[in-house]
Amino acid sequence: MGGYVYIMCSNNKSTLYVGVTSNLRKRVHEHRAQHYPNSFTAKYNCKLLVYYYYYESIGLAIAEEKRIKGGSRQKKIDMIVAMNPKWNDLWIDVAQWD
């Protein structure tokens, strides 16, 4: 089973959240709906999906999530800009996945 590493951000881009999941569409929907009201993303209003990458194994995705979380904010920003230079909300595309 594969997995996704993803980055969510707040509307003003001041807060970034890095996560991992095997079901990106479901997980991002949960963040956006604040399904877990006491979570980090709910507290800091991180509802915009600005980066994601698929890995063939969930183990690789988890390892990459840990590596990214251990890096600087600037490295996270660089990853986002490389994939999504305008910081568009990628949820628009992901929401349409089957």
By secondary-structure content and strand pairing, the structural class works out as alpha+beta
Count of distinct strands: 3
CATH class category: Alpha Beta
Shape: globular
User: Total number of helical segments?
Assistant: 5
Helix content: 40-55%
Name of the CATH architecture: 3-Layer(aba) Sandwich
CATH fold naming: GIY-YIG endonuclease
Tell me the distance between the termini: 17 Å
The major pleated sheet works out as: 3 strands, antiparallel
Strand order of the largest sheet: 2-1-3
Architecture blueprint of SSEs:
Elements: E1 3-10, E2 16-21, H1 24-32, H2 40-43, E3 46-55, H3 58-70, H4 73-83, H5 91-94
Antiparallel strand pairs: 1-2, 1-3
Structure explained in plain terms:
It is a single chain. The protein has helices at residues 24-32, 40-43, 58-70, 73-83, 91-94; strands at residues 3-10, 16-21, 46-55. It is α+β, with helices and mostly antiparallel strands and 98 residues long. The protein has one domain (3-94): GIY-YIG endonuclease (3-Layer(aba) Sandwich). Strands 2-1-3 form a three-stranded antiparallel sheet. The longest helix is centred in the middle third of the chain and has 13 residues, at 58-70. The two termini are 17 Å apart. The model has no long low-confidence stretch (mean pLDDT 95).
